[in-house]
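QA checklist item 7 of 12: single-chain prediction sanity check.
[x] sequence parsed
[x] length recorded as 159
[x] structure emitted
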Amino acid sequence: MAVLVAQRDVRENVAFLKQLQDPADRFEFLRRTIKVSDSVYLRELEYGAYLLTLYWTIVRGYVLWRHGFACGRCGCEEDCQVHHLSYAHVGCEYRHLRDLEVLCKRCHSDAHVGAAELTEALKSIAEQKRMARAPEPVRWNPHYDPRACNLTKIDGRWL
């Protein structure tokens, strides 16, 4: 709970938040009270713990409310979740709401499976490109190997 504001103000702010019923009002209060140090703290949390914070509860509730509690892909209104399009802004999503989308459980699962398949495909393509750029192995040629020609190296030069 100390994520929202300084420790001395937490009890007062949580009590005030409980009075606010409208997700837009709660989000606006969060936006006005959050500090940079709070965002840094949130980024350092493990993702599972992060999802249990008051901060995420408020942001998630606002995003669901703003999108009408309906999946952005299929329009389903049951079991909707908030999906991060990018994890680059974890802890400061309140400034990057476009990185969040509302998906039903099925579409959310499909989004993660599709992302995993895409990642594997991109890795495969990168490996193919790397192999295409790799130089051919150098073949042993006795004419260019001074040891094969029984030459002697004196003062850094082969004689």
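[x] summary fact logged: The mean pLDDT is 78.
[ ] second reviewer sign-off
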